Structure formats: C-alpha cells, structure tokens
Amino acid sequence: MDIHESLLDAVGRTPLVRLNRVTAGLAAQVWVKLEFLNPGGSVKDRAALAMVREAERLGDLAPGGTIVEGSSGNTGVGLAMVAAQLGYRAVVVVPNTIAREKIALLRAYGAQVVPTEAKVPRESPEHVNNLAARIADETPGGWYANQYDNPANPRIHELTTGPEIWEQTGGRVTHLVAGVGTGGTISGTGRHLKQHGVTVVGVDPASSTYSGGDGSPYFVESVGHYRHPATVDDVWPEAYDQSVLDRFVRIGDRESLTVTRRLAREEGLLVGGSAGTAVAGALRVAAELGPEHLVVAVLPDSGRNYLSKYFDDAWMTQLGFLDAPAGPFVRDVITARGLTVAHADHTVAAVAQLDADLVAVVTPRPSREPTRSAPEVVGAVRPADLRALLAGDPGRGGDPVVGHATGTPTAVGAGENAAEAGARVDGPALVLVDGRAVALEHLPDPIG
Ligand SMILES: Cc1ncc(COP(=O)(O)O)c(C=O)c1O
C-alpha cells in the first residue's frame, strides 16, 4: 500500500487502463491515462505542484505569499490544493463562462475567485491572463503562476507523465494522443515519448486555431485555442512546443460530447469533454492501425465537473447536440432557408438590401461557413424594418446595424420538441445544430 507524508506526494503515478467496449472492431489497442485520479481531480495537479516548487526554488514565492493564476478551473484547483497544503493564499481569475461547479470547487479549497469577461481580445486588461498578472503585481508577496508560459508546466510532464506511460506500457506504446490547452501535457509528455519513437498526435476542437480553425467558439472546455475577433496578435502559449507534434486530428463538438457520454455508459469512465475529444481522436488514430500498435490517450479531468452540461440532456438538446424524446422537432417545422448574417459593424444601408426576412447580427469574423457558432450571434434585425427606417430618415444609412438590432435571440435546438421550444421563445428563434446557428426564424404557433 502507498502511504504518503503529504497529499502532494500523491500527485502523479496515475493508472493506465485499457478501453474494452468503445474500441469494438479496432485492431489496435487504446489505453487511457486516468489523470482525473490525481488528488485535486485533474492532470493540472502535476503542473501546479511543479510550478510552485520551482517558484520557491527561485525565490519568487516565499512563506506568507499569494499564488495568483488565470485558469478555466483545473489549474486553479491544483494551485488552491497545493496552496492549502503549503500554507499560501490563492487567487484564481476565471472566465465567466466556466461551469459553476468549477467555481464552487475553487472556493471549497479556500481560494479567492475573481470572475472576468470571457470573450475579450487577448490585449484587453480584463483578459484572464492580463488581470491575473496585474493582481499578482499589486499583491504584496504575489506570484503569478502563468501556466501558459511557465516552463515548469511542460517540464513536469517530460519528467513524470511521459516516463510513466513508457513504463506502464512496458515500452509498447506507439502513439500518444492528447489535447492542447496550454500545451504543457502534450509538449512534455510527447517530448519524452518521442525519444522512444512514439508518434505524437494532438487532438483539437474543429474551430480551434491551433490546427488551423477560424478560432470561433466551441463547447468543449479547456482545450484548443479560441480567438476573439478583435484580437490583433493571437499569442500562443510558450508551454506549447509545436515541434513535438507529428500531426493533429480535428474533432467537432458533437463527436467529442458523444464519446464523452459513451465513456460513462459503456466504460464506466466519467470524464470531461476534453477527455472525450482525446478518446475520439485516439479511436480515429487506432482505426488506421494494426494489432501491433498501442495508442495512449490522456484523460485530463472528471465528468463531475460537467454534470450540468455534457451529461444534462436538456443542455445537450437546447444546443442541438441531442434529440428530445419525442417530435415533431424544431427541424420539422422550420422553413430551412438557412442563416443570413451581417457583421455588427455593417451599415444599416447595406443590411437593408439583404434578401431575407430576418438577419442574424454576428460579431465580425472572416468566415465562409454557412453557419455561426451560437455565442457569435448578438442580435437579430429585419431588413424591411431598416428600409422603413431609411425611408423616414435616410441619414441613418451609415449607422452600424448592431445599434438597430434586437438583443440576442433565444436559441433552440433543432432536435427540441417543437411545441416545447415554441413555449420558451418570445420572438424569432435561433436554431442550433451542434452548437452552431443554422437558421433564424419565427417558430409556428404551437398547435392546440
Ligand atoms: C479539462 C482539461 N483538459 C485539457 C487541458 C489541457 O492541458 P494542457 O494545458 O496541459 O494542454 C486542461 C488544462 O487546463 C484541462 O483543464
């Protein structure tokens, strides 16, 4: 039996488990590294502990000090746990879109949580990282962990996660599959395993910029790279070493979330969405390989963090990832003419000429996609109303259209029961498939 003088000695050495059911029909084996079994509940315990130990060694963090970090949750939890064990204060800046369970968790460890606006340009003072750096600066004894650029983050994976996987597989691992958030996990683990000839595969949300996407929002948390449309210089973390990756596999939200849910039901593995992304990627990689290959996927955190999201059927259905138990569905009652969009800064004169009943006003982003990620739609406007406005007041033609639009339209899932969706909506409905808007129109009145 393992016994430890400190909880911190229980970080790492996580189990490696073979997948047996979701892999049906595949020749290659897929094994998963259960990082959610770290004491703080995620892969981030490794980086948190390593960054703190290194800061102590360098004299950047001293007794009585305050650890400050910007984190979508897990690094914050890791740091809060380490802080509690070592007697530091912890302040964690989080984007205001993260799952509420994650905020409660940080507070449970005694950390101070500072929510900030999620969708702001990288340059904004309110951006998670900029705000965390400022708080650290202004706090006596404050130290900014900065997981994104801190070399201790990838290094601990090179020193621990990589060697563990090599030893646990008895040197049989041929492929490593992991997501890229800060890049610490894949860069460090991959760097070690590459020395042994292992192929390193990054998995990335389909619209993430890491693998060439347009940077538009997606619903799997903590992996990939979102780019705010107003960001000028899209800085990637220094913890991410692109040269370690042999290739990327791009996984859309639907596939990630479907696999996440299957892992719970078919393997008894309750894991988060980024673990679903990793396993979805691992299954695709394994499908190309013969029985001599062994694919290892890293599962970063537990599904308990996401019970109100990926494991909630209503949440899944309203975003268009799942169908309601009974129809007729929203998709059966809409006209399916598609989505007409205008950028928020387009002029009233230009939008007035569009041939559509309703136009979705979106945050500006160059895109040739016929759909838009749901969070990008910020309003609705009727070209006919704009034409009437211009007839009375031609001087408004140069106004940005957003000033004449309604607020964000209510979103409904294409697979929602049409009558139930209709009862929720007041005004036009933004119809979603896989978290992306495909139509904006009034639903017919519920019959009866
Ligand atoms: C749930 C989850 N998945 C994946 C990652 C990505 O790991 P890394 O930052 O090492 O790239 C993180 C990191 O915060 C995470 O919290």
> Percent of residues in helical segments?
25-40%
Number of strands: 17
Bound heterogens, unique: pyridoxal-5'-phosphate
Q: Give the overall silhouette.
A: globular
N-to-C SSE string, H for helix and E for strand: EEHEHEHEHEHEHEEHHEHHEHEEEHEHEE
Known CATH architecture of the largest domain? 3-Layer(aba) Sandwich
At the fold tier of CATH, the topology name of the largest domain is Rossmann fold
CA(first)-CA(last) distance:
66 Å
Strand content: 15-25%
Determine the mean pLDDT.
95
Give the tally of structural domains.
Answer: 3
Uncertain regions: pLDDT < 50 for 5+ in a row?
none
Question: Biggest sheet: strands, sense, closure?
Answer: 6 strands, mixed
The count of helical stretches stands at: 13
Return the structural class: alpha/beta
Spatial order of the strands forming the largest sheet = 1-2-10-7-8-9
Q: In CATH's first tier, which class of the largest domain applies?
A: Alpha Beta
Structure keywords:
448 residues; alpha/beta; Rossmann fold; CBS-domain; 3 domains; six-stranded mixed sheet; four-stranded parallel sheet; 13 helices; 17 strands; 31% helix; 18% strand; globular; binds pyridoxal-5'-phosphate
